[in-house]
Amino acid sequence: MSSLKLPKLRISVKAYESAILDSACIKILDAIKASGIQPVGPIPLPTKLRRYCLLTSPHVNKKARDHFEIRTHKRIIDVYKPTEDTLKGLRNLDISAGVDVEVKNF
Questions:
Q1: Which CATH number belongs to the domain containing residue 17 in this structure?
Q2: How far apart are CA 74 and CA 44, in angstroms?
Q3: Residue 64: DSSP 8-state
Q4: In this structure, what is the dihedral angle of CA atoms 72, 37, 30, 7, given to the nearest 10 degrees?
Q5: pLDDT given for residue 5 in this prediction
Q6: Which pLDDT score is estimated for 1?
Q7: Does residue 50 sit in helix, strand or coil?
Q8: Domain count, the chain
Q9: pLDDT digit string (tens) for 21-72?
Q10: Which residue from 27, 42, 28, 22 is spatially nearest to 82, judged by alpha carbons?
Q11: Helix (H) or strand (E) holding 5
Q12: In a domain, 41, yes or no
């Protein structure tokens, strides 16, 4: 196994549903462990909550409103001293729709 010049990879995973997010994290962890590296994480970050208030009837019932919210769940996985096998395994993953995966190197 040849080590790359990258000292650390940070993988941030975001989704609106926590169950889909957890299954994607398990797939990522399995791909990293298959290359022989022990990852750090997934570290759960605070859930971002966005609330919206909309008027249901703009003319007659001004006080009637509907409230909606969007919860964004986020996890971070750190990989120290990744190899080429690690990156190859991460590229070949089949992650479900609705999950945003972002890989940064430090």
A1: 3.30.70.600
A2: 6
A3: -
A4: 30
A5: 63
A6: 47
A7: strand
A8: 1
A9: 999 999 999 888 888 888 887 899 999 999 999 888 878 877 888 899 999 9
A10: 28
A11: none
A12: yes
**Long-range contacts at 40-44 (CB < 8 A, ≥ 24 apart):** 40/77, 40/78, 40/79, 40/80, 41/75, 41/76, 41/77, 41/78, 42/13, 42/75, 42/76, 42/77, 43/75, 43/76, 43/77, 43/78, 44/73, 44/74, 44/75
Distance CA 1, CA 86 (A): 10
Q: How far apart are CA 10 and CA 59, in angstroms?
A: 50
Partnered with residue 9 across adjacent β-strands are 79, 105
Structural domain for 14, as ranges: 8-45+74-105
Residue 61 in any domain: the answer is: no
- Predicted TM-score of the model (pTM): 0.76
Structural domain includes residue 67: no
Domain-embedded: residue 50: no
* Rounded Cα distance, 86 and 48, in Å: 30
Count of all residues that appear for the chain in the document = 106
| Token pair of 80 as six digits | 């120290």
